[in-house]
Amino acid sequence: MRELRVRWTGELEAASRRAADRVAERARRSGLVDVGYATVDSPVGRLLVASTRRGLVRLAFPEEPVDQVLDELAATVSPRVLEDPRLTDPLRRDLDAYFEGRLRRFGARVDWALTHPGFSRRVLEETARIPFGSVATYGEVARRAGSPRAARAAGNALHDNPVPIVVPCHRVVPSGGGIGRYGGQEWRKAFLLELEGAIEG
Amino acid sequence: MDVYRFLVAAVGTQEAEDCFQETFLSALRAYPRLRDAENLRGWLITIATRKALDHWRASRRRPLPVETVPELAAPERADGDPELWRAVGALPPMQRAAVIHRYVLDLPYAEVAEALGCSEEAARANAYEGRKKLRAMQGVAR
């Protein structure tokens, strides 16, 4: 029955986007959004940030496809994921201030839903305590997390940090010198450490 | 996108926006019941179908002011043969939904059945009956 068709025109696409925007708006007002996300432009690229009512749950660099990040959130946190600039606004302001050198400590609380409880989480919590402008070694962070000999495991936990920058895994470096590796590409680690004055440019 | 296309085919461009919003809000409200996120799309089409059926039933009950588009009018801006669309609008609700799922969205019968909340057999029968009626109506028109 070829005579029945609904062609996907630009007009239809616009109407469907409009309807989707209104759904988001109404869902927000009715408290139906569990994970709100937004993108933030920054000197290290466009960042995707996602928050729940408990706090920041995910920050992703542009190499990670947005759909993949959102699918992961839908599968592990809640399928009620919607674009919601308001839920992420305070963090956006903090990120702007941080990159302009006006902010040394993020006010955002972290929702650890994407991190394994136990060692990984303790490593990230200890990392969150490393002050702006200083660094710690993988071994030191492992020790503070309760397992002095687990430097490599600490490195893995840091690599899987769901909220880089805000939980400053870039401040963890190898004991043998150099800045070491970084899940979000090493030039970013260098950039962030320079920004904080921890290393010379 | 399928959800939106289905609604445009089922209730027309004007009403599609409202039905789309209701569909998603219902889905979000009902979310704790949704454990299988993989089947999200099928689930949304099912809800959208229910909304369309409600909409058809409500508009049949509601007395139509003269200047309103009559119920049997083709959904505005859907493509294809307007006569045929009008004929689709005259089908009983289940047949109408089955025809749109099967012949506009090209859904397999398993998904048509899921959307209609009936067996695959019943989905086939509804699409088949609908199609037969459309043929008959077209036969008269041509």
Which key features would you list for this structure?
A: 201 residues, Double Stranded RNA Binding Domain, 2 domains, 7 helices, B: mainly alpha, Butyryl-CoA Dehydrogenase, subunit A, domain 3, 6 helices, 70% helix, globular
What would you say this structure looks like, in words?
The complex is a heterodimer of chains A (201) and B (142). Chain A is built from 7 helices and 7 strands; from the N terminus they run βαβββαβααβααβα. Chain A has helices at 10-29, 66-76, 85-99, 119-127, 138-144, 151-159, 186-195, and strands at residues 4-5, 35-40, 47-52, 55-60, 81-83, 136-137, 172-173. The model of chain A has no long low-confidence stretch (mean pLDDT 91). Chain A is elongated. By secondary structure, chain A is α/β, with parallel strands linked by helices. Chain A folds into 2 domains: 32-114, Double Stranded RNA Binding Domain (2-Layer Sandwich); 119-195, Arc Repressor Mutant, subunit A (Orthogonal Bundle). With 142 residues, chain B is mainly α. Chain B has one domain (2-141): Butyryl-CoA Dehydrogenase, subunit A, domain 3 (Up-down Bundle). Helices cover 70% and strands 1% of the residues of chain B. Chain B has 6 helices and 1 strand, in the order ααβαααα. Residues 65-74 of chain B have low confidence and may be disordered. Chain A binds chain B through residues 1-9, 11-12, 15-16, 18-20, 22-23, 26-27, 30, 32, 74-75, 78-80, and chain B through 1, 4-5, 8-9, 13, 16-17, 20-21, 24-25, 28-29, 31, 34, 37, 40, 77-81, 84-85, 88, 99-100, 103-104, 131, 134.
